[in-house]
C-alpha cells in the first residue's frame, strides 16, 4: 500500500509537469477531494500504482491523468524513450513517421510525439489526417523511416487510447526492443528534460496515401471479376474513405455504407464495443444488408487493420464468418492464383491453414500470438490471425491490413459469383478435402485482473485429463517455450481430434481460450453430421474448460 503522504507528493509533482489543461484539472480535483472522499482517494491511488508498461507493440490504456493512464505526459515520456533508443542504435538523424486515428486525444498524442522526435534531433513526419493503421505501416517502408508510431487503441472501448510502435522494417516491436525502449522511458526523470520545439515536424501530403492505394493494385489478379456487391461499415472509425478509394480503383461496385457508423466518432455511439466480433456490433450492418441485398458484408474495426466478413445465410439472414474461416478462404484463393512463399499464422488460429499449405506444397509456420511475430516470418507470402487480422501483401504492409483483405475477399466472392457459387460453398469444399476444422472461443472479460492469474494457476496446478470426453494427449506450458516458439504466458492442450489454447489477452482484460475440433467429413453428404458433431464437441469443450479453470 502506498504511503498517503508519498502519494500526494508524487501526484503533485505529476500535476506540476502535466502539459494538458484537461488532465491537470482532473488531477487537481482528485487531489482536492482525496482527503475527505475514500472513492477519490482510491482513484488517486490506482492512477499512481505504477506506470503503464509496454505490452503488445507499445502502450494501451484508459485515458486520464496519472502514470497508469493514457495522457500527454505518458506519451511524451514514451516518445522520449523511443527517441533515446533509436539514437542509441545509431539512428541519430533518422525519420520517424507518425499516424493517428480519430479517438479522443489521438491528434494531440501524434503532435507531442513529433515534437519530441524533432527535439531529440530526429526527423518527424505526421500523416495528413486520421488514417488507417495499415497506411502508417506502409509509409514506414515507403519513406525509408527508422521507426513509426500509430496512435490508436484499435477496437478497444471509447475511454481507451494506445501507442503502437514499429521499427524500420515496418513490423511492430518485439523483444528485446520493447524492454530496451521501456528502460529508456524509465530513465526520463522529468518532462522538463524533454525538448519539444514547436516547429520542425513535417506534415505529409496526400501522396503517401496515393502510394498506398497504388500498392493495393498488387493484391488483385489482373482481369479478375469485380462484380460482388458489398455493404460496408467503418464502425465509427477511419476506414471509410480509404476503403472506398481502394474499391473504386479496383472497379468493384461502390459499397453501400452503414450510414450510422460511416463517419469517425470517438464515442462509438451505436456499439457497446467497436469490435465486429462483439455481440450486437454488426446489427446495423445486417439491417442495411436486408435492404441492399449485397453478396457480402464487410466491416473494419476503428483503425481499419482488421476485416470482418458476413455472408447471406439460407434462412434469409446473415452469418458472420469466423476469422479462421476467412483466413482459410483467402489462403485457398491465393493458392489457386499460384502464390508462392510461406503461409503463416499464430498458434491460436486454425490448423486448417497448415493443411492447405501442405496440400499446395508451400512452406508453413506457426508463431506466437500477434502480427509482430507473423510479420517477421522469413519469406512470408500470407499470414493471418483468428482475430480478423490478415496480411495479404507483406511486401507492401508487414502487418494486418483490413483494406487489402477486404479487396481480396471481394475478388474471391466475385469469382465464385461468376461460377454460381458462394464463399460458403468454398468452405464446404475445404471441409470435404481437409476435414471440418471448427473453431470457437471462450472469452471472459474481468474487472479484477487477479482472476485471470488465478485461472491460469488453477489449470497449471491441476491439468485436465479429459475435455469434452476426449483424452488430453499432450499438455504444454508455453511459459517454457517450445522447439519453435519463444516463451509466452499460455497453455496448450492437444486432444484426440481437438486442440485448446488458454492465454491472457495482451490488449484487453480478458482470459481467452481458443478451441478447435477436426471432424472427418467424407463426401458432401457427410457435412450436416460433421457440423452437428463439431458443435457438440465445441460446446462440451467450453463447459469443461470453464469448470477446470474456475471461470
Automatic annotation (TrEMBL):
Needed co-factor(s): Mg(2+)
Presence of the UniProt keyword Membrane in the record: no
Entry keyword set: Isomerase, Magnesium, Metal-binding, Phosphoprotein
InterPro entries per record: A-D-PHexomutase_a/b/a-I (IPR005844), A-D-PHexomutase_a/b/a-I/II/III (IPR016055), A-D-PHexomutase_a/b/a-II (IPR005845), A-D-PHexomutase_a/b/a-III (IPR005846), A-D-PHexomutase_C (IPR005843), A-D-PHexomutase_C_sf (IPR036900), A-D-PHexomutase_CS (IPR016066), Alpha-D-phosphohexomutase_SF (IPR005841)
Pfam family, one: PGM_PMM_II
Segments forming domain Alpha-D-phosphohexomutase C-terminal: 462-517
SUPFAM superfamilies the record matches: Phosphoglucomutase, C-terminal domain, Phosphoglucomutase, first 3 domains
Alpha-D-phosphohexomutase alpha/beta/alpha domain: residues covered: 53-188, 222-312, 323-427
Similarity field: Belongs to the phosphohexose mutase family.
Protein name: Phosphomannomutase
Native organism: Streptomyces lasiicapitis
